[in-house]
Design a protein that fits this description.
By secondary structure, this protein is of the alpha+beta class. The protein is built from two helices and three strands, in the order H-H-E-E-E. A three-stranded antiparallel sheet has the order 1-2-3, with no helix packed on it. The protein is elongated, with a radius of gyration of 17 Å. The chain starts with 13 loop residues before the first helix and ends in an 8-residue tail after the last strand.
């Protein structure tokens, strides 16, 4: 990953997919060039990553899960697919459960940092 680039994982979210659909429609209608579409998507990657990093109010998150899930590692990105998950948020002040959870973990260093 070169300097100035961010992970594209949020493009798979609901808002990211909607943005991609909209940008694709604009390209197909001849209203924007593909180069502008890439700039828009790269801007989205940067903006969403920065907003989540600076505006997340989560102090601590613990979870327990069954070992029936999967663990994947590719291109310096870990993906955990776990089942029957119990979460404890902010020192047990909140708890919730989920049948299935996908956790994507990326290097927290910014591109170019040692």
């Amino acid at each position: 990953m070169s300097a100035g680039q961010f992970y594209e994982i949020y493009r798979g979210s609901s808002i990211g997919a909607a943005l991609i659909d909209t940008v694709d429609d604009l390209i197909n209608e001849g209203l924007i060039e593909p180069q502008l579409a890439m700039k828009v998507l790269n801007n989205f990657d940067r903006a969403i990553a920065q907003e989540l990093a600076s505006n997340t109010k989560l102090d601590k998150l613990n979870f327990k899960a069954s070992l029936g899930g999967r663990l994947l590692f590719c291109d310096e990105v870990w993906t955990f697919l776990i089942k029957d998950v119990h979460f404890k948020v902010n020192n047990n002040s909140e708890t919730f459960d989920a049948d299935k959870v996908k956790i994507v973990a990326c290097n927290s260093k910014k591109p170019g940092e040692p």
